[in-house]
Amino acid sequence: MSEREAQELVARADKRASSSTWLPFSSFSSTSKFEEAAELYTKAANIYKMAKRWKESGDTFCKAADMQLKMNDKDEAASSFINASKSYKKSSPQDAIATLEQAIIILTEKGRFQPAAKHKEDIASIYESELIDLEKAMMAYETAADWYAAESSTALSHKCMLKVGTFAAQLGHYDKAIEKFETVAHDNLDNQLMKWSLKEYFLKAGLCHIASGDTVSAHNAVGRYCEMDVTFSATRESQFLQSILSAVDNSDVNQFTTSVVEFDQLTKLDNWKTKILLEIKKSIGNETLI
């Protein structure tokens, strides 16, 4: 199959979609012509897809969706918009987002929030990885988290919440970050499979408390984490937070640096924690990198 064949199919579909309906039972005839046009557009879109003509594939899937909407076949239209987004993602992230949003409108109208959440998460991923827009990625992940929660998909909701917390902290929205990390930690207190993750969530929330500049709140938070999980006080993460807090309280840059180096030697600091720690270090009067 060639691109020429796809072009011919599109031309036939265009002609069929715009043809006049004069026969008896015109509503049936109108539906029939839109159905035929949608099938032709879909076939053409898949040929373009195989030829890696991503924009043409996405555009043609959208034409199929338009025909399906004219027939009030919203399920098929949503599928066509999703297929369009997959093609657009290869060439135009913004168009991929726009078509996913079209599918999401249909899905939410029909009360299908689980798949809607999945596609909202896909949008967030595009903002995160392709467009590098953390603010919009954060907002999309937050919506996905809410929709997953509404469908009792707790693990998926928490996964998106952690993304929100991560980006919120990077953007300086420490209160939002703290709320998300603490919520996920609280919800997993009795989950034995997630028990090992609690110290990570508490560490991230604690660092955000310190970075926000409210050391009283930070001290209270660390104490609260130790009450929530009796094993936390003995962890390196808890001891690290206490040491960082002490350095901030005493405006002791050397103590801060020593604490960070010692922790990093046994538990490698990732880029996110390093960035937050740099913000904390600046607050105690030294902007030199860790």
TrEMBL record:
Gene Ontology annotations for the cellular component aspect, listed alphabetically: SNARE complex; vacuolar membrane
InterPro entries, per database record: NSF_attach, TPR-like_helical_dom_sf
Keyword Nucleotide-binding attributed: no
Compartments where found: Membrane
Gene Ontology BP terms: intracellular protein transport; SNARE complex disassembly
This protein's UniProt keywords: ER-Golgi transport, Membrane, Protein transport, Transport
Membrane-related topology note: Peripheral membrane protein
GO molecular function list: soluble NSF attachment protein activity; syntaxin binding
Pfam families in the record: SNAP
Function: Required for vesicular transport between the endoplasmic reticulum and the Golgi apparatus.
UniProt family annotation: Belongs to the SNAP family.
Protein name, UniProt field: Alpha-soluble NSF attachment protein
